[in-house]
Amino acid sequence: MNKETKLRIHNITAKAALKFGSEDWVLKKREEQRLDAAQIKFLRHLLGITKLDKEKNKCIRGKNGSTEHSKGNKTVPGKVATTCTDDGHNRIPKQALQYKPKGRRNTGRPRKRWRDQLHLEDQGTGNTPNPS
Fold this sequence. Notes:
The chain is mainly alpha-helical. The chain has one domain. 50% of the residues lie in helices and 0% in strands. The chain is built from 6 helices and no strands.
């Protein structure tokens, strides 16, 4: 099934089930947030976007042309395009998470360092070096 069909089915069934009888409700802010969270969870799954991708909710809604549950059909064209231009691939935390070192480690015993040599010489004379 393609994405448009899945989105239509979601709009017909899931939205209707979530909003059943909501004409009589007075939604509290917490209930609005829960409706929006349910919608975003579905849209993330539909697009294959995880939370590790650091996509903003506005960007996810903009890719499908959908709006927040609590906002109804109010859309502001142009707002989504300006805030979602950065895809986040150049963020340092993401680069650090995906870093793969090149090459291999040296095999065998580690090379002796100058500091190790000083430590051995001091042991022979009885002087104890400062650990700093």
